[in-house]
Specification:
The chain is of the alpha+beta class. Helix content is about 20%, strand content about 30%. The protein folds into 3 domains: about 160 residues, Alpha-Beta Plaits, CATH 3.30.70.2200; about 90 residues, Glycinamide Ribonucleotide Synthetase, Chain A, domain 4 (Alpha-Beta Complex); about 120 residues, OB fold (Dihydrolipoamide Acetyltransferase, E2P). The site of adenosine-5'-triphosphate (ATP) has 22 residues, from helix 5.
């Protein structure tokens, strides 16, 4: 048996398709060709800040063992499926497929994947690597999808990773309202917490496992392992048929996109960052209830924005004051004539508070009643006992801060696919483990 890694990306548009669905179809097709999967289909989320993504910047990889005689038919199946299901008419859709025949993934391809998740890479770099490692690739239109295809092959998810069971609709239901029993989803969340995540936004009382668009996905359940997402899936009741489902292994919910930089000078457009600095302006509310403030250190200054749907995070941002020392996490928006370089916040960690001080009129040293000012730098007088004093000063009061020295994360409904939710803290997987596929990880 030979080993092959098949990566593909950029097949969908906002009006049609979903690259995970192509993977789900291929699972069924390839299994009919004596193929053995050596990993779950991998759903690799790439840099969420690149300007030309369709939605969640997800790329897919299938890792298989196969009899050599089946190689051509396997490739034909993949190409035919992408050709048939991709929205090739849409302007921004540029599918790419990569076939890498190798037992292990070369280090440089792994590094390329990391760069595609945390930064921006070029098609030229991808093509160089394909040549060096004798991988085959097929690009449609401008072929940009080859970047995502190769990155999906390169991200072997050896560190922290999660799982998502995605259930798909019958084609005749695409575009119609998704028929799911919301109560069963709230129950499922309670029964499987903390090992599943982002099922519901409890604050808003909303389910968030169903997407909104006309795509083939009915819902997706995210969790720590294949068993738990399968258990959760059995608990969800639907009022429309499920055409198929597959369990994916993924980097969702791991913060894999965020790269720590040493100072604000290293904050670059389109590169998601973690960086520390001092709050340099009072936060202000701009139209549509977004919160803006600036952050500085010795090396530079950037704006930080917490958008309306970010919930808790926006409330926390509003309470920051000048001098607070914080750590911000988020994607970086390029500067324009209207705004400077801006970190779109996903998380804030408050590290050290600046003192919040208020000045009040002093109490009368004779009778204790609060005194009245006699004018700027003219001292105070007591209305009760008549005492006047030119030298007496206002008293300094330290106000209690209502923020806590902790981590604030955007609300579940506005989290990016890659954002690690609060529920996952402490559940991260640090060690490389051998992937063992559970019985029944797909249907049909
Ligand atoms: P969906 O998540 O709905 O499948 P999408 O948001 O993944 O769609 P794509 O249609 O795949 O969006 O478009 C992203 C395109 O950008 C792909 O062609 C991919 O190869 C390329 N790309 C992804 N990440 C990077 C990156 N870091 N640098 C350069 N190009 C990238």
């Amino acid at each position: 048996m030979k080993t092959m890694h098949i990566g593909f990306d950029d097949t969908d548009s906002t009006r049609k398709g979903c690259t995970t669905y192509i993977a789900a179809l291929l699972v069924e097709k390839l299994l009919r060709n004596e193929v053995k999967f050596i990993d779950y289909p991998c759903l690799v989320r790439l840099n969420p800040n690149i300007p030309w993504k369709t939605r969640g910047n997800g790329a897919l990889c299938l890792r298989i063992k196969y009899p050599e005689k089946k190689e051509e038919i396997i490739k034909e199946n993949v190409i035919a499926c992408v050709e048939e299901k991709a929205d090739l008419k849409a302007r921004g859709t540029n599918p790419g497929i990569v076939f890498l025949k190798s037992n292990s993934i070369p280090k440089e391809v792994k590094a390329f994947a990391r760069n595609t998740i945390t930064g921006i890479v070029s098609l030229k770099d991808a093509l160089k690597l394909l040549k060096k490692f004798e991988a085959e690739a097929l690009g449609f239109k401008n072929g940009r999808g080859i970047i995502g295809g190769l990155a999906a092959v390169g991200e072997t998810l050896e560190g922290d990773h999660t799982y998502e069971l995605i259930a798909y609709r019958l084609p005749e239901n695409y575009g119609l309202r998704r028929q799911v029993d919301e109560n069963s989803i709230f129950e499922m969340d309670k029964a499987t917490a903390p090992y599943t995540f982002n099922n519901v936004d409890w604050k808003k009382g909303r389910i968030i496992i169903t997407p909104r668009g006309p795509d083939p996905i009915l819902f997706g359940i995210r969790g720590e392992n294949a068993e738990i997402v399968k258990k959760a899936f059995r608990m969800v009741k639907t009022f429309e048929p499920i055409e198929r489902w597959v369990i994916f292994r993924t980097n969702q919910g791991t913060d894999a996109h965020l790269k720590r930089v040493r100072n604000l000078r290293e904050v670059k457009p389109y590169h998601p960052v973690i960086v520390r600095g001092f709050v340099a302006s009072e936060s202000k509310t701009i139209p549509r209830r977004h919160i803006l403030f600036s952050l500085k250190d010795e090396e530079g200054k950037v704006d930080c924005a917490a958008y309306e749907p970010t919930g808790f995070l926006r409330h926390a941002a509003r309470k920051l004051i000048i001098g607070d020392y914080i750590e911000v996490y988020g994607g970086v928006r390029a500067p324009s004539s209207a705004h400077p370089l801006t970190v779109n916040l996903e998380k804030i960690r408050v590290l050290k508070f600046a003192p919040k001080i208020m000045y009040r009129n002093p109490p009368c040293p004779k009778c204790g009643k609060r005194m009245k000012s006699m004018g700027k730098e003219k001292g105070f007088r007591c209305e009760k006992c008549g005492l006047k004093d030119r030298n007496i000063q206002k008293v300094e009061i330290r106000l209690k801060r209502t923020l806590k020295r902790s981590l604030y994360i955007t609300s579940p409904r506005s989290q990016r696919h890659l954002t690690k939710p609060l529920r996952r803290y402490g559940l991260e997987k640090h060690r490389k483990s051998i992937v063992k596929l559970v019985n029944g990880w797909h249907f049909p």
